[in-house]
Inverse folding.
């Protein structure tokens, strides 16, 4: 952590502190965030309410009936003074997400290929080639923001979000990729679909993916997708396409 | 139905939005799961207190009114918060106090006279199966509520009530000074923080010296406020966690105060955080009503919060 003024504690109300560790998004951040998460759990114990890691920060919320914000600040300063990156826990679990890349369930696939000036096959190869890291969860339960996407696939969000993105949709926007756990509105470009259950209230830990995890998308055919319980119902085309 | 529970009410008419709420869903924010819980913590806690329940007992949050429920047995209840022109059969229903409801009698909510959300607690508490540790009903996430799937109340629902294990308080009504007049412009205590130093001096002056009008775009996720545009030198941020009451300012300069069902992370600069009681008070403001921000300090805000919790649990 060489940036000046960092790490920094910023007030987040009577029951929270925002711990700012970094200014920019780097994979290495995850090793420090993993360490900070463990150390906060140990330091705060029963007074801890929630920890929300995201890209460069950790939001720490605590029970204001048990500790004051100035007591929490002191504890956090002590934790930060002794913080060392967690090389082991920060590695994260590896998940392979079987994905059927197809213009029916991924109606933006063709447009992404055009925008990137490559074939659909090359889009699929590029997207499924690398390993991604989960930098944050948010938007909806179990929705994992993963990066960083190869720059050749960088494309903007839809100017008009879809009112209904089917569950399991694999999507890209900017330098990020994600899979939608449940049906929600959404503005990302849909390029395929997975049958993986990303959020399951009956699973221990509920969410398949956690901050710090590593993810590889594996291209599968329709048959495999269907065998895994995938829904082949096509997704709505984006308004971008309807206009042209 | 769980052992020790019985049917307490039948829903004759659901109205636009009636939700079951306990204190909220905690320990799961890192999974992208929001908080839920009562938008007005103050009135919800008083309703439970008056019904003789412990902190955190599930109670109904009735927004706008329109709900009609009928008792399936003799019950002790309390309604606190907004005046939604509620009736106990044909008589006006007294707010902020414990009342008895006989089997077959109806509680009928009308339209908002003062405030937006009323809380109905029943002695023993409403009963439902917790999902991710809470029964807090979040429709957007399909979590909690009586069915576990985040569904709002619907006509024909039968609401289960836990057996009361004895009344935990002698309080039968809320002291006068603890009952807010929601028709007055709200003064909202804000703890400065986050990116406040990156707003222009003029914007900081305007933030704390202007009247802000509550916009139509107001729900359990957040309340948008209309007033002079505020300027921040940061236009885009890396997304980060958002706590209850955070006041964020998107590029149009119009602040949004984030409430219980907010998204867990976001990327707009923030002025700081409303105190929990200020967020609760804002949740009672109707579109068109005026509010002001008042800067407060951490010590004072904590003292007030602890005094409130002591009063409703002590």
């Amino acid at each position: 952590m060489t940036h000046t003024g960092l790490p920094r504690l910023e007030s987040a109300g009577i029951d929270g502190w925002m711990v700012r560790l970094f200014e920019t998004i780097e994979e290495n951040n995850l090793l420090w965030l993993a360490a900070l998460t463990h150390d906060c759990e140990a330091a705060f114990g029963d007074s801890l309410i929630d920890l929300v890691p995201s890209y460069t920060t950790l939001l720490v919320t605590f029970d204001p009936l048990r500790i004051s914000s100035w007591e929490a600040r002191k504890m956090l300063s002590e934790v930060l003074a002794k913080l060392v990156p967690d090389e082991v826990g920060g590695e994260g679990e590896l998940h392979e997400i079987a994905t059927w890349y197809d213009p029916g369930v991924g109606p933006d696939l063709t447009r992404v290929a055009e925008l990137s000036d490559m074939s659909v096959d090359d889009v699929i190869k590029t997207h499924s080639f690398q390993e991604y890291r989960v930098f944050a969860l948010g938007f909806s339960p179990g929705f994992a923001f993963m990066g960083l996407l190869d720059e050749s696939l960088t494309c903007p969000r839809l100017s008009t979000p879809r009112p209904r993105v089917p569950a399991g949709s694999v999507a890209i926007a900017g330098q990020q990729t994600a899979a939608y756990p449940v049906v929600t509105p959404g503005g990302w470009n849909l390029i395929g679909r997975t049958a993986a259950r990303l959020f399951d209230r009956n699973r221990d830990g509920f969410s398949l993916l956690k901050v710090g995890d590593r993810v590889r998308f594996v291209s599968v055919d329709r048959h495999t997708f269907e065998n895994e319980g995938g829904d082949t119902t096509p997704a709505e085309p984006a308004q971008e396409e309807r206009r042209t | 139905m769980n052992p020790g529970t019985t049917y307490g009410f039948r829903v004759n008419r659901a109205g636009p939005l009636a939700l079951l709420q306990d204190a909220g869903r905690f320990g799961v924010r890192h999974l992208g799961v929001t908080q839920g819980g009562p938008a007005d913590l103050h009135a919800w806690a008083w309703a439970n207190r008056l019904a003789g329940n412990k902190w955190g007992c599930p109670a109904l949050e009735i927004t706008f009114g329109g709900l009609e429920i009928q008792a399936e047995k003799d019950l002790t209840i309390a309604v606190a918060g907004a005046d939604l022109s509620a009736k106990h059969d044909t008589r006006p229903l007294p707010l902020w106090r414990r009342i008895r409801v006989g089997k077959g009698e109806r509680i009928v909510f009308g339209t908002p006279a003062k405030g937006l959300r009323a809380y109905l607690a029943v002695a023993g508490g409403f009963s439902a199966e917790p999902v991710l540790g809470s029964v807090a009903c979040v429709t957007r996430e399909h979590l909690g509520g009586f069915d576990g799937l985040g569904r709002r109340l619907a006509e024909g629902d039968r609401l289960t009530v836990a057996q009361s294990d004895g009344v935990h308080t002698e309080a039968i009504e809320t002291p006068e000074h603890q009952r807010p007049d929601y028709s007055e412009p709200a003064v909202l205590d804000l703890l400065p923080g986050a990116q406040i130093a990156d707003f222009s001096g003029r914007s900081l002056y305007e933030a704390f010296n202007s009247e802000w009008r509550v916009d139509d775009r107001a729900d359990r996720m957040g309340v948008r406020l209309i007033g002079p545009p505020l300027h921040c030198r940061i236009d885009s941020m890396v997304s980060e966690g958002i706590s209850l009451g955070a006041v964020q300012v998107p590029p149009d300069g119009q602040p949004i105060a984030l409430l219980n069902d907010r998204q867990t992370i976001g990327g707009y600069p923030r002025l700081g955080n409303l105190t929990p009681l200020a967020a609760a008070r804002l949740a009672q403001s109707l579109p068109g009503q005026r509010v002001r921000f008042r800067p407060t300090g951490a010590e004072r805000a904590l003292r007030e919060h602890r005094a409130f919790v002591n009063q409703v649990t002590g």
